[in-house]
Specification:
With 216 residues, this protein is of the alpha/beta class. The protein has one domain: Rossmann fold, CATH 3.40.50. The chain has 7 helices and 7 strands. The chain has a 7-stranded parallel β-sheet with strand order 3-2-1-4-5-6-7, with helices on both faces. α3 runs parallel beside α4. It is globular. It starts with 9 loop residues before the first helix and ends in an 11-residue tail after the last strand.
Amino acid sequence: MATVDEPMTVSQIRDAEDWTMLTVPERDLMDRAAAAVADQCSLLLASRLTGVEGAEVAVLAGPGNNGGDALLAGALLAERGATVRAIPCGGRLHERGAARLSAAGGGRVDPAAGAVIVAGADLVIDGIVGLGARAGLREPAASLVPLIPRETPVVAVDLPSGLEADSGDDDAPHVRATVTVTFTALKRCLVEHPAAQSAGRVVVADVGVELPELDL
């Protein structure tokens, strides 16, 4: 397992993940990522009056692995006593993540009803899109993200959705995170301004990705 101090590009991260998954199941990497996200969520909730138990957590989840990480993190929080509701932001939810959340007692909310959930949440997990996404937010996320109250903590999975991983630009609509839990290495959007201003506190989590010789 490893992390590096220098930012890595999307291409470099994907090459490292592909290399690792020759011997390590993808689900293991996702479970470690989810645990890192859940731990940061727990720390934020513990610093508020609610605490984890009884806290209202909204998960904005896309259909990809970032959405899966967010759902799995939500399941861990549900097991710790939080009320967790997932809002699909891509037509469907990551299958294993959704099943795990359901088994932990979490629920799924139709995007049409998501506004109330997002506005009333004690914490929001951003798992809308992943590293390869273009800048900006698509519906329903484009309508839901602006409804997050300014004082509500937001934990972004890998990067705030709406930013491009390999760019420091922030011109397009995007999530503004309180904490970003990124994996293996920093990305340019997390360290280059103005985009970095939306990343909040950045935590680089070691999820077990092996790093071959890379030209960083």
